[in-house]
C-alpha cells in the first residue's frame, strides 16, 4: 500500500520496488542542461493540422517550468507507424511544431533527423530556455528493436534523459528502455503525475474502492479483472464483457456479443473475487434492440430475458440505479471501458449516466476518480465530464498493463536508474 510522503507525493509500491526511488527531473538542477525528453506527441492530424492538442498541451504544461529554470529541451516522439527506414513525409513530426511552439510559448526548432552529427550539433547549439523537436523516432528500425547502438546515438543529444511518456512506457523501445541504461535518467512531470494518480487509485485506494470495467470481450481483460478483484471492494462489469458473465449464469443472449469459450475464466474470476471479498456487480436489466443502428428501437428486459431475435447493447435503467448507488458511496472510482455501445445513442445512456454520477462524486469531494483507455476517454468526453474527473489518462496499452499489475519496461528502467544513483 502507498503512504503519503511529507511533501504530499504518494509513495507507491510497484512490484518489489518503491517508486519513490525513481529520480524526478523536477528535483534536479536543470539550468544549462540538455534534457533529452521522450514525449508522446502521437496526436490526431488531418490535412497536416492537429485536431486534438490535449497531449501537446499536457506535455507543455510540465515542461514550461523547466524551461523557466534554464533547461534546454531536446524533444523526441513517435508519430504513427511508418515503415522503418522509409522516410514517408506523411509521418514527419515537423507538422506538430506550430502547436508545440504555441503550447510552450517559445519557437521550437526542428532537426530533420533524430540521430547523427547534425542532430547532435543542433542540440549543442541550444541556449537556455530553447527547444528542439527531433524527427520521428520510428523512422529508425533501432527504435522498436530497442537497439543499444541507436540508444547510444540518441544519448549524444542530451545530458539527462527524461521519460515523460507514460503512455509509451509499456514498450521496451530504445527511447524508453535502452537509453535509460546508458545515461543519467529521470521521470518527467507528466509521467510522475500519471503514476501518482494511478497509485492513489490502485495501490492506496480510499475505501470503498470501486472499478468500472467495460468493453467488448472478457478475454482481452482477464489479467485486469483478476488484479482488480484482488485489490478493490467492488467491480462493476459492463459492455459485452457483462454478457459473458451473464451467459455463464445460464442467461440467454439472443444475438448479443458474448464469449462462450470464457465460461471457465468467468468462474475463476468469480472465485477470486469471493476469496478477496470483492463484490462483482452485473447488470440486472438490459437495453436491447434488433439492430445496432441509430434510432433503433430500444427495449428494456430483465437480464435473464433477452429475446432470441435481439442483442444486448447497454445496461438498463435499474442497473444504472444500482451502479449509481454503489458509486455514490465510493471513495475511489477507477474506470476503464464503456458500459454499452456508447458510440450510437440511445445505447450510450448507461455510460453517460454513470459518468455523471462519478463526476458529481468527484466534484463534491467524496471520491477521487481515475479513468483511462481510448474508448473511456471518448465516452467521458461525450458525457461532457472529463474535466470533473480527478485524472483522465490518455494512455491505452500502458494504462491496461498497469491495471494488470505488470511492471512497465520504461518505468522499470527509471527505477533501475534510481537504484544505481
Topology:
Blueprint: E1 3-4, E2 10-11, E3 13-14, E4 17-18, E5 34-38, E6 45-46, E7 49-50, H1 54-68, E8 72-76, H2 97-104, E9 109-111, H3 117-124, E10 131-134, H4 141-144, H5 148-155, E11 160-163, E12 185-187, H6 189-203, E13 209-213, H7 222-229, E14 234-237, H8 239-248, H9 263-276, E15 279-281, E16 285-289, E17 299-302, E18 311-315, H10 317-328, E19 332-336, H11 349-363, E20 368-372, H12 374-383, E21 391-393, H13 397-403, H14 409-420
Parallel strand pairs: 5-8, 5-11, 8-10, 9-10, 11-12, 13-14, 13-19, 14-15, 19-20, 20-21
Antiparallel strand pairs: 1-2, 3-4, 6-7, 16-17, 16-18
Q: Can I get a quick summary?
A:
35% of the residues lie in helices and 18% in strands. With 421 residues, the chain is of the alpha/beta class. Helix 12 links the parallel strand 20 and strand 21.
User: In DSSP terms, counting alpha (H) and pi (I) runs of 4 or more, how many helices?
Assistant: 14
Beta strand count: 21
Task: Based on the coordinates given, report the CATH architecture of the largest domain.
Answer: 3-Layer(aba) Sandwich
Largest beta-sheet details:
6 strands, parallel
End-to-end CA span: 25 Å
Share of residues in strands:
15-25%
Structure class? alpha/beta
Kindly identify the CATH topology of the largest domain. Answer: Rossmann fold
User: Major sheet: order of its strands?
Assistant: 9-10-8-5-11-12
Low-confidence stretches: 1-17
Give Rg in angstroms.
23 Å
Mean pLDDT: 92
Which outline best applies? Answer: elongated
CATH class of the largest domain: Alpha Beta
CATH homologous superfamily heading of the largest domain: Phosphoglycerate kinase, N-terminal domain
As for the number of domains, it is 2
**Helicity level:** 25-40%
